[in-house]
Amino acid sequence: MFVFRKLFGVFLAALLLGGALKVGGDLKAGPEVQGALKPQAVHREAAEEIVDRLDLHYSRLSFDDALSERVLEQYLKDLDPNRLYFTRQDIDDFQVYRDKLDDQLEDGELEAGYTIFNRFQTRLEASLTEILADIKGGFEDWNFDGDEEVLVDRGEAPWAADDEALDAIWRRQLKNAVLSMRLNGTEDAAIQERLSNRYESQLNRVRQNTSEDVFQTYMNALAQSFDPHTNYFTPHNSENFDISMSRSLEGIGAVLQYEDGYTKVVRLVPGGPAAKQGRLKPADRIVAVGQDDDDLVNVIGMRLDEVVDMIRGPKGSNVQLEVIPAGSASEHDTRTVTITRNKVVLEEQAAKKEVIEFDHDGETMKLGIIEIPAFYMDFNAFHRGDPNYTSTTRDVAKLLVELRKENVDGLVIDLRNNGGGSLLEVNKLVSLFINRGPTVQVREAGGRVSVENDQYPGMLYAGPLAVLVNRYSASASEIFAGAMQDYGRALIVGDQTYGKGTVQTLLDLNHGKLKMTNAKFYRVSGSSNQNLGIVPDVNMPSLIDKDQVGESSLPNALPWDEIQPADYERYQDLMPLLPALRERHDKRIRDNPEFLYVEHLRDLVADANQRHELSLNAEQRKAWQDQYDEKRLAIENALRKYRGEEPIAKMEDLRKLEEQRALDPEAGEEPMKQDPYLRETGHILADMVGLLREQRVASEGS
Predict the structure, then answer these.
(1) Residue 182: enclosing H or E segment and its boundaries?
(2) Per-residue pLDDT tens for 570-588?
(3) What is the pTM (predicted TM-score) of this model?
(4) What angle do CA 36, 219, 74 make, to 5 degrees?
(5) What does the alpha-carbon distance between residue 79 and residue 206 come to, in Å, rounded to a whole number?
(6) Using CA atoms, how far apart are residues 84 and 173, in angstroms rounded to an integer?
(7) Active site residues
(8) Residue 536: alpha-carbon gap to chain centroid
(9) Local confidence band at 669 (pLDDT 50, 70, 90 cut-offs)
(10) DSSP output for 31-42
(11) Is 196 left (phi over 0), alpha (psi -120 to 50) or beta?
């Protein structure tokens, strides 16, 4: 089975590089693309225009040899993220381009991008053909009792030395897939059918690649070398600003991105079908899509716009998504999620309030909570002059008036999972909690800084305030939380936020569009939200893996930095209170089963994800799985015991329970008054009020 690959390697080197490269590695004048797919004149013109536009990118990168090297690395990573197709010889052959791509691109020359892609295409077709032959041969003679291991993440692994080494890598990958599915209870016949369908679908998709596909892939490698939010869109998908389901009329309500060959979930839109269904999570990777009860179609390696088109559909219809859950150690440990398409209902994004009472050091406290899922505004109604247009600030203002009548002792603004929205709205929301002053600074690519200001004097709410955030709090949420922290107006509680502090603009091209980062947000203190996010004053335990979610997890993300602070005055300095607040918080949650559950589950998943290699010995693998399941059940049952619920005997029962919760997520939704994070935030706020009172008494007595 390996003879073809060995002959193919020799043939490929002669065919693809013979006309493009000379001995010694220098490019011929005007090199011709080697391979079947070639650029069109419109692509060359568009490439020159993209280069011109990128000169205005916020980072101001020069088109030089350093950028050339960066683009080459990004392109190879985009094509072969797990190093399963190219060999070391391929990579060595491509090194001739390491300092040439900048010159080629400035001249609209696309030879390198197309020649490399054609090599990839040929390699990929050959690999998939051999993989399918192996799968169709069956698994009866495969050995699962040796000491073989498979590398979990090949992103940084050495390139295969030759064709034989590449075959060995694929053999282990396939054995891992079969073993993973066997341990999940899947029969061999079903495994064979499932893997055959996956790789046949991928092979069919590969054979449909066009010159336009190559151009989009290559231009995105160039764009993403500047930062992860700079993208090129072909005319086919240029109407999608950020490939966001939130902008489709009817879909599932999810923001997606292409990463390492997969379609990855960035965030869910509050009020959208996916968020309400509850089973799709940020950092999940979509590997297949199906319509209603039709067979699933493999989408690994498929362009993002194609995947989006498959997921969209008419209201009321179902879409099936096969996903690799976030944190899964194997790409074959998948689950299928069925979501009914619908419109994202604005009312379900609306802010809502509740008052909860709790005992704090023997005193009953009334805590007002306002949950803000998104920063929304009905722009159409606003531009029509409708005085009753819907907006976050208007809704929150009404809720604040109602809470004031209820004489609450403190207020929590809950921004967990709030991915942002209208900049106008977040500026106006800040104005409800400060008297007057700057709210955020915006620095443009050329260095000019503009300051957004609160134009309305007075505060609608001046009492004790906390802002609850998590890793999914992004963009506008970070602007609000940062302003509250800088003014000393609120305690920030929870987890470090996402770190999205850049601004993008959409530029028309002669062929498609370019979304480009052209500005950065800065807090009034001068600190950027970018990459770092908002660091809470008091941290809460979290299950979210910062290595998988957040700006800092994205390649080529712009760094954190600072500019001059704006002219503003702090209301109070909460910094001296933080050591005491953190100490009391830590003491309270140390033995709290709700938070112990999060910490223990996080540690268990982290330990599992730290395995760099998986055993291909069935007995050893099953022993590890049994041990993991035992620990997982113990963690679950400790919480159930605390809540007065019956323990779960087997992992199968826990999986069934989670499936039932997924079918009716709203039924299992925790009321605000039972949410341990909100209650603990209330305790922290009460501690702050008490410490401030002690400060005042001490100050008056001195």
Answers:
(1) helix 163-183
(2) 999 999 999 999 999 999 9
(3) 0.82
(4) 95
(5) 12
(6) 9
(7) 475, 486, 500
(8) 20
(9) very low
(10) PPPPSS----HH
(11) alpha
